Amino acid sequence: MAKNVQSKPNYGIDAPGLLRFFFISGAVALAIFLVVLFSSVLGQIPKIIVVTLLGIAVTYLLGMGCFMLYGSKVMKLKDRDKLLNLVQWSGSELVLDVGCGRGLMLVGAAKHLTSGKAIGIDLWSQQDQANNSSAAALSNAAIEGVTECVEIKTADMRQLPFSENYFDVVLSSWTVHNLEAKIDREKALSEIIRVLKPNGTVVLVDIEHQDEYAKYFELHGMTNIQFYNNPIRDVILKALTFGSFAPSAVLACKAA
Ligand SMILES: C[S@@+](CC[C@H](N)C(=O)[O-])C[C@H]1O[C@@H](n2cnc3c(N)ncnc32)[C@H](O)[C@@H]1O
Known about the structure:
Elements: H1 16-38, H2 44-84, E1 94-98, H3 104-110, E2 117-122, H4 134-143, E3 150-154, E4 167-173, H5 182-195, E5 196-206, H6 210-219, E6 222-228, H7 231-240, E7 248-254
Parallel strand pairs: 1-2, 1-4, 2-3, 4-5
Antiparallel strand pairs: 5-7, 6-7
The chain binds S-adenosylmethionine.
């Protein structure tokens, strides 16, 4: 009998509904584009205009779908390893992953620990990540061999169930932007600062609002605020996606 053992971690696909929308509407636009291109119903000038507009729509829709898929499956994993290498690990840290989903940052951080612990919190939104669950995060932790130092809790990032000054490192990846209202995002940031120990480090990677996060950290006494991005990739992605998709990180420390 074949063994059903998953040997590679699966960190999932973000915003699966939006991804489906881009690919389905892109395919429909492509079909209409081809019909118009090879039909002789329209006169030459109207045909050029319609074909050009449809060509732009097809490129945008399928391009966005591809960016999102590449972001979830490739870009995010590469960025995770680079970002986690910026933290000065001793191995004994208490780490929080805010909105851990299927455990990308959580498991990555756990690999740096010896006696420490990585705790992930999430509300398991299926809209934000496909097949999102604590079981999926724990399964990825098991595949990566870090079950012993990983713990999962169900909690809202606007109300973290931890006392103040608790964590040495707080991580969050592609999560805070899911709070649509600025006041909610600020609540999440204030919770991150509250649970972080003095001298603790936060690494907040997201696809938008990074300036807002940095400003909030500065206003609330955080130090060593740094942006971590790939400037060329940033400019290209912002231009191609009208500013809606440009993953980069904000790093900051809580004052001693
Ligand atoms: C795009 S996914 C990213 C998951 C994971 N950090 C990663 O990078 O793969 C966003 C995550 O935020 C979680 N989330 C959304 N709103 C939340 C909230 N208010 N509190 C906690 N988690 C939340 C979702 O359930 C989802 O797991």
